[in-house]
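Internal tracking record. Fields below are filled automatically when a chain is submitted to the structure queue. Please do not edit lines marked as system-generated. If the sequence contains nonstandard residues, flag them in the REMARKS field before resubmitting.
Queue: standard
Priority: normal
Entity type: single polypeptide chain
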Amino acid sequence: MKIDPKFFESGAVTAISGEFGPMGELAVIKLLCAIRDSGYYLEWSVQRKMMMLRMLPGVTFDTLERIVERLAEYGFFSSRKLKSGVLTSAEIQKEYIREIGAGKARRRLGWPHLLVDLQEFGIIPAADDAIVGEEPYDTPLRIDRMKPLAEQPYMKVRLRTTNPAIHIYRRVDNPDFMHRTVSHPPGAGIINASRR
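SYSTEM-GENERATED OUTPUT FOLLOWS
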């Protein structure tokens, strides 16, 4: 996760700093690190709050609750998701998708608590597999249909795109590939010890 050099000058962080001082700023950084460590959202349970308090000496349970509520009020976190016990935001999610890359994002099976449209990044969620009638996504396919599978060192996997007419493939190793061993004539490669 990259931190903007003007992070502490952003409206929400400045407001938190004004109300809670340096501990408020530290709490924001610790919360962002915890979210990024778990992906793009954080289950805001009592256990998680207690773990966070251990990393913020001098901050009480009520103060931490107020910091998070203020951050949601300022739009730093989604207030709708906070009501259901989740810390996330559209900006955090967009940054996460950009960081992992579209390829990994396409292979992700579930997207709970999503606030952004994945198609904006050229990603169709895995749940849409049933709609596509032709070849399945993420299933290894032959590269050369004429050659036996055991003679092909690689296979291809179709990736998801927003346009079903576009086929983008990724090359993968073929686990059934039979490596051919080169046979040598008898005695080849053996050094005769008697000649010196």
